[in-house]
């Protein structure tokens, strides 16, 4: 029996205003909450990771199966960008965009301007968003709880495949985003996150 999971999206328009600076083109940014985006993983725990990545498009606010029109993709705790080159793990999608990323230390509100000099793409040696507990977006608690929780103060900043920008705050890795998740009873690999999308090509200001 197959269970169909639905992606719930809440869209709130945040109004910004015009400025003469080309980096602050005055069209509204868009704030979206994505709930329970499933990122299954095969293997792991000493075995080679495999299985398709769950691709996501910031502009449309949806999961996509497109080979080209995607910005980021998820598999287990790994997040990749549509830019750079593959690490050659099994089932990684081909990079054919200009995606890149870095991690901002602070809150979503504090992340106002993209520091383009910090942006890096995926490479054969590492992803733009590092993997492993404490290295990227999450912290693993270890035994006895075995929880994967978003690390506070880690905002993921992305350049999209087509040279626009988004900032992301991951809220939960568990189905339904429970306030106090239990790794033994709550299903994992379900991302809930907030993001703000800047729809103007080249515009780097969110505020």
Summarize this, please?
The chain is an all-beta fold. It has strands spanning 8-14, 29-38, 42-44, 47-50, 54-57, 62-64, 72-75, 78-81, 100-105, 138-140, 148-150, 154-159, 165-174, 188-198.
Q: Key features?
A:
single chain; 207 residues; mainly beta; six-stranded antiparallel β-sheet; four-stranded antiparallel β-sheet; 0% helix; 38% strand; disordered N terminus
Describe the structure.
This protein has 207 residues and is mainly beta. It has one domain. The protein is 0% helix and 38% strand. It contains no helices and 14 strands. The strands form 4 sheets. A 6-stranded antiparallel beta sheet has the order 1-2-14-13-12-9, with no helix packed on it. It has a 4-stranded antiparallel beta sheet with strand order 6-5-7-8, with no helix packed on it. Strand 5 and strand 6 form a beta hairpin. The radius of gyration is 17 Å and the shape is globular. It starts with 7 loop residues before the first strand and ends in a 9-residue tail after the last strand. The N terminus is likely disordered.
Biggest sheet details: 6 strands, antiparallel
Shape: globular
> What's the total count of β strands?
14
Instruction: Please give the order of strands in the largest beta sheet.
Output: 1-2-14-13-12-9
Structural class: mainly beta
The percentage helix is under 10%
The low-confidence runs, each spanning 5 or more residues with pLDDT under 50, are 1-23
| β-strand amount | 35-45%
């Amino acid at each position: 029996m197959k269970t169909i999971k639905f992606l719930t999206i809440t869209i709130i328009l945040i109004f910004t205003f015009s400025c003469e600076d080309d980096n602050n083109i005055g069209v509204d940014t868009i704030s979206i909450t994505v709930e329970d985006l499933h990122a299954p993983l095969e293997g792991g725990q000493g075995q080679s990771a495999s299985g398709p990545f769950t691709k996501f498009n910031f502009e449309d606010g949806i999961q996509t199966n497109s080979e080209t029109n995607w910005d980021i993709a998820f598999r287990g705790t790994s997040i990749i960008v549509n830019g750079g080159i593959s690490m050659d793990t099994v089932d990684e999608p081909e990079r054919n965009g200009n995606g890149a990323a870095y991690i901002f230390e602070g809150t979503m509100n504090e992340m106002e301007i993209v520091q383009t000099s910090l942006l890096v793409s995926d490479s054969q040696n590492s992803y733009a968003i590092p993997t492993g507990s404490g290295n990227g977006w999450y912290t693993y608690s270890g035994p006895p709880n075995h929880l994967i929780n978003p690390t506070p103060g880690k905002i993921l900043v992305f350049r999209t495949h087509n040279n626009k920008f988004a900032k992301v705050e991951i809220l939960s890795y568990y189905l339904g985003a429970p306030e106090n998740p239990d790794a033994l009873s709550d299903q994992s690999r379900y991302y809930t996150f907030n993001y703000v999308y800047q729809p103007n090509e080249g515009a780097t200001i969110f505020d």
